[in-house]
Specification:
This protein is of the alpha/beta class. It contains 14 helices and 22 strands. Strands 9-8-10-11-12-13-14 form a 7-stranded mixed sheet, sandwiched between helices. The radius of gyration is 22 Å and the shape is globular.
Length: 401
């Protein structure tokens, strides 16, 4: 299970409980937040969480990741060879961007996740001498497996990892390592394009900038090609739950500008459904529903939610509104679910509303998206306070931590 740095007690304690986790690996701190104290709190409440492994300074009772790496293994290699892994068992749990409170756990099996990466790699122009610069957080599906680090390794290609997304740092790495591929969200790409340092580096090795998380505007795509002529910006649409769609590198220009692609697998099944679960006529808007060999059959430990999240015949209801282009590709037309898309990060308005409502000064709240030139959307919380109560922005932020 891969939680995100922004997750705190509410999310992580629930993930541990549902998954039955016995170990947790974390940094000692992230910015000003103490993860060691958080894990110790959860361990007291859930005794099955036996192991806490810390990158950084490990307090008593927790294990140092550096010390474990340096320690010589004592298990016999023949003993390890006897361990059998069922390819149909979950390899990891991804997290949903769901609208009903805390994210749900998405079981991805060894089989389906390998297939996910290999099929994504088949439409993104990866060769043995390709080089991926991975700068998006690997806790997300795109930089990990679409095709991501995993897909490039399967091809025998190289991966350069960086936690620094500053424009000049990125340009320097591209020039130094002759990077051919990068995964981005539009907000990050826009930031790079607007930095004057882009003209001071040789970026001609770049072949594909793969954009996901939110719709990329045609103007941004055109500016990318103007500043980096060697590049094709490849739009993709996908979900941690499964089905991936990519614009093909050889699609006509108008199709690449207007659509988010088509499924990467011939066995992916797509339905666009209306409010009555009827298939909409070609070219009309409907909810994107999917079924296929690497799409989940149900969220882990969420039987009641699964009844609403899937059609009776097993199609996953994505909550995305789409219509089909004349080319056969698909176009995103909005969301049915109450999510706010902040720089590609899907945030549940209901989850944040419930957290704010637990503050004693708050009588009611509504979280709504507001336009943002850089991130696409930001969240705005509109509060109604209890009679006579008051709260500052900083006080609310501290409360939510």
């Amino acid at each position: 299970l891969r939680a995100l740095p922004a997750h705190r007690y509410l999310e992580i304690s629930q993930f541990v409980q549902i998954a039955g986790a016995i170990g947790c690996v974390m940094p000692d701190r992230h910015r000003d937040f103490d993860f060691c104290a958080l894990v110790e709190r959860i361990r007291k409440e859930q005794p099955q969480l036996k192991h806490g492994i810390v990158l950084g300074e490990a307090p008593p009772g927790l294990l140092s990741l550096d010390a474990l790496i340096a320690k010589k293994a004592t298990r016999d290699s023949a003993e390890l060879a006897k361990i059998k892994i069922d390819p149909c068992d979950p390899a990891l749990f991804l997290l949903s961007g769901g609208t009903t409170g805390v994210p749900k756990l998405i079981p991805r099996t060894h089989n389906d996740y390998v297939y996910n990466s290999k099929m994504a790699g088949s439409v993104t122009g990866i060769a043995g001498d390709s080089v991926l610069l991975d700068v998006l957080p690997i806790s997300h599906n795109l930089p990990l497996a679409c095709p991501g680090l995993q897909g490039f390794v399967f091809k025998g290609a190289r991966v350069v990892l960086s936690t620094d997304t500053a424009p000049e740092s990125i340009f320097r790495l591209v020039e130094k390592h002759r990077v051919t591929h990068i995964h981005v969200v539009p907000a990050l790409l826009i930031r790079w394009l607007n930095d004057p340092a882009i003209s001071r580096y040789d970026l001609s090795s770049l072949c594909v900038i793969q954009s996901g998380g939110q719709r990329l505007q045609p103007e941004t795509r055109a500016k990318t090609h103007e500043l980096i002529p060697s590049v094709i910006v490849q739009e993709n649409f996908g979900m941690a739950e499964g089905v991936l769609m990519f614009v093909r590198l050889d699609d006509p220009l108008d199709v690449r500008l207007e659509t988010v692609g088509r499924p990467i697998c011939p066995d992916d099944e797509i339905l666009l459904l209306d409010e009555d679960d009827k298939v909409v006529p070609f070219g009309e808007i409907g909810e994107f529903c999917c079924r296929g060999p690497y799409t989940l059959r149900g969220y882990y430990g969420a039987a009641e939610h699964n009844k609403r999240a899937f059609t009776p015949d097993g199609f996953y209801r994505s909550g995305d509104l789409m219509r089909q282009h004349n080319s056969g590709n698909y176009m995103v037309e909005g969301r049915k679910k109450d999510l706010i898309n902040r720089g590609g990060e899907k945030i549940s308005a209901e989850e944040i509303e419930n957290l704010i409502l637990s503050h004693p000064a708050v009588q009611n709240v509504a979280c709504v998206p507001v336009p943002c030139a850089e991130l696409g959307e930001r969240m705005c919380a509109c509060l109604v306070l209890q009679p006579g109560a008051g709260i500052t922005f900083d006080e609310l932020i501290h409360f939510l931590e």
